């Protein structure tokens, strides 16, 4: 048993303890923690970690980050100000804390079973879990099942599948494989080979059930056994064609399922190779009874761009009633409240302050990954604090700028970084205007024609899950421009922040110029928007002028207080100019504000 800070780490029983409470850590993050704890206070590079933990498998560094994110959450660590795991940018990680060896008895608990369990309970997925349970029961009775769990990144596919596999373990053998971006799409049967490895592989060979499975599988599927290194080759694979391969694999798995029900999990099918999809298709179409359930996850938007025929496969299986689709939606506000209460309870007792749950839900738009990152951010930035036995927020919530929590920004950055450079530029140009942008503005930012841009964005929205068309705008010249929405504010912020300042400023000016030409003669309508672009480009004088125009417009609409706020802002912007440049204008604006104040007072008095 090892001790670091207030934690005890028990590698034999694969668990972690904090103050006598057992903390539930999923197997993969646990392996990462184990390696870090065994190699404390030195740089552990990403490659070293990946080689040490998954020598046989290609694991994306992105996945590693997710595990570290989970570990930080469990340890209550802060990425910006770490106590345990520090990120060494572009290199890897360093476990900062001293680790000491202790006796198990000294840790104050003798066995795994009798401690209360602190775990990240799944929230808001009761219906889905119940449906999975019903389908699994049918599978156990011999009615083979295929279930697709779909949802965007962070929507909780893996979490749901994990929960299902936990409860299935009592009755079934669970095997798992995962597709990965890049390599996985090119290497035939990549996730299936991983799945067979987890079912039959030689790690932890003392398991008698596994040995039995290996023998049975080798009898029925000798070619596959040879392929995954479980039996001598015997020349079988030379006489193999693809149909024979698929048939043998299906028969092998069915034979195993006859012995004990089986849950096969294939994750992230949107990156799967076509051989894997063919296999899934073949397995599901076989008519004989089999006590197996195949549980596959994918992101629908990415699936549309998979050159293999995943979408078709899904459609086909669902229309023939061979499969079930569970499409994960954002979780609701009550579930977000439960989640928040659970997370806070792990830190200290007390009821979450009112309004925090709805703030978190609103900010995350019900995406559990975003929700988790936002709660973590509120805690690590000490915006949500526990003092004098209660939880409090330190600033009025509407004023809290959650920005983009660092870990989340890193993950989104990775996601964006994997797109082509053209796709990145298109997304960045859209983000110049905001979460919602018309194509003409993005076209102006890019310096290309509107029609070309319309085509490019239409195609892009088909490939990018966080970009959606949202209607049309009719322009003064009679032409139409499509509106697009970035599905989450956080994407806009990352896309905006990653652009070099000089490029961003130029883009804002180009959009401003386009606004002025498109809406020539309707200056009042666009003054506010124009001011925002000038301000973002650092064109203080123009920005102040546009704000004054916008204020005049507000006065016409009889909104004196709005006008006063704009004029005050214009004054602030003028502070960026030297005194001589601004003197006359300042005096004029101040006079206008004073006039408005008098008018407002008169109105109040009357
Ligand atoms: N229903 C849920 N309740 C609580 N936490 C959740 C839930 N769904 C997901 N999470 C958390 O959000 C994070 C992302 O979820 P994950 O299952 O990995 O998403 P996906 O596989 O869809 O990308 C996980 O770390 C998990 O802890
Ligand atoms: Mg997942």
What does this structure look like?
- This protein is α/β, with parallel strands linked by helices and 606 residues long.
- It has five domains: 2-107, Arc Repressor Mutant, subunit A; 122-327, Rossmann fold; 333-400; 419-518, Arc Repressor Mutant, subunit A, CATH 1.10.10; 525-606.
- It has 26 helices and 19 strands.
- Helix 1 packs across helix 3 and helix 24 (540-556) runs antiparallel to helix 25.
- Residues 105-119 have low confidence and may be disordered.
- Bound molecules: adenosine-5'-diphosphate (ADP) and magnesium ion.
- Magnesium ion (MG) is lined by residues 157-158, 267.
Which terms summarize this structure?
single chain; 606 residues; Rossmann fold; six-stranded mixed beta sheet; five-stranded parallel beta sheet; Arc Repressor Mutant, subunit A; 26 helices; alpha/beta; binds adenosine-5'-diphosphate
């Amino acid at each position: 048993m090892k001790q670091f800070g207030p934690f005890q780490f028990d590698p034999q029983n694969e668990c972690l303890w904090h103050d006598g409470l057992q903390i539930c850590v999923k197997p993969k993050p646990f392996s990462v923690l184990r390696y870090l704890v065994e190699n404390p206070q030195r740089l552990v590079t990403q490659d070293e970690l990946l080689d040490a933990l998954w020598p046989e498998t290609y694991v994306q560094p992105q996945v590693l980050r997710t595990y570290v994110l989970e570990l930080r959450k469990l340890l209550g660590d802060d990425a910006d100000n770490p106590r345990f795991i520090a990120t060494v940018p572009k290199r890897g990680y360093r476990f900062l804390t001293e680790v000491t060896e202790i006796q198990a008895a000294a840790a104050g608990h003798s066995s795994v079973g009798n401690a209360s369990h602190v775990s990240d309970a799944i929230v808001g997925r009761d219906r889905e879990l119940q449906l999975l349970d019903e389908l699994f029961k049918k599978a156990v009775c011999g009615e083979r099942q295929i279930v697709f769990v779909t949802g965007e990144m962070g929507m909780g596919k893996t979490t749901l599948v994990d929960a299902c596999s936990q409860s299935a373990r009592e009755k079934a053998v669970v095997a798992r494989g995962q597709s990965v971006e890049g390599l996985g799409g090119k290497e035939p049967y990549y996730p299936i080979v991983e799945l067979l490895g987890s079912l039959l592989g030689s790690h932890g060979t003392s398991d008698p059930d596994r040995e039995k499975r290996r023998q049975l599988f080798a009898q029925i599927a000798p070619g596959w056994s040879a392929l995954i290194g479980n039996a001598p080759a015997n020349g079988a694979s030379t006489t193999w064609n693809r149909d024979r391969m698929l048939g043998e694999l299906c028969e092998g798995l069915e034979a195993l399922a006859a012995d004990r029900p089986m849950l096969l999990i294939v994750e992230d099918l949107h990156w799967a190779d076509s051989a894997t999809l063919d296999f899934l298709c073949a397995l599901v179409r076989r008519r004989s009874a089999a006590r197996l359930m195949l549980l596959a996850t994918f992101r629908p938007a990415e699936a549309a761009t998979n050159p293999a025929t995943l979408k078709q496969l899904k459609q086909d299986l669902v229309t023939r009633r061979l499969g079930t689709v569970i499409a994960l939606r954002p979780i609701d506000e009550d579930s977000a409240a439960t989640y928040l209460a659970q997370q806070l309870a792990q830190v200290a007792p007390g009821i979450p302050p009112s309004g925090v749950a709805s703030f978190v839900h609103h900010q995350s738009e019900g995406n559990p990954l975003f929700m988790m990152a936002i709660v973590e951010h509120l805690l690590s930035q000490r915006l949500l604090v526990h003092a004098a036995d209660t939880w409090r927020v330190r600033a009025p919530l509407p004023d809290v700028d959650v920005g983009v929590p660092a870990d989340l920004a890193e993950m989104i950055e990775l996601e964006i970084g994997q797109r082509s450079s053209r796709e990145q530029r298109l997304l960045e140009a859209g983000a110049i205007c905001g979460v919602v942008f018309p194509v003409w503005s993005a076209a102006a930012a890019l310096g290309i024609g509107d029609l070309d841009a319309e085509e490019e964005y239409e195609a892009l929205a088909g490939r990018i899950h966080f970009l959606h068309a949202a209607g049309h705008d009719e322009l003064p010249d009679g032409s139409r421009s499509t509106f697009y929405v970035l599905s989450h504010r956080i994407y806009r912020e990352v896309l905006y922040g990653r652009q070099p300042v000089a490029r961003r400023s130029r883009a804002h000016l180009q959009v401003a110029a386009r606004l002025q030409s498109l809406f020539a003669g309707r200056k009042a309508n666009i003054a506010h928007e124009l001011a925002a672009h000038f301000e973002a480009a650092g064109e203080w004088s123009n920005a102040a002028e546009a704000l004054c125009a916008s204020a005049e417009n507000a006065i016409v609409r009889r909104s004196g207080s709005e006008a006063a706020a704009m004029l005050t802002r214009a004054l602030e912007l003028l502070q960026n100019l030297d005194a001589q440049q601004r003197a006359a204008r300042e005096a004029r604006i101040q006079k206008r504000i004073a006039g408005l104040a008098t008018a407002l007072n008169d109105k109040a008095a009357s």
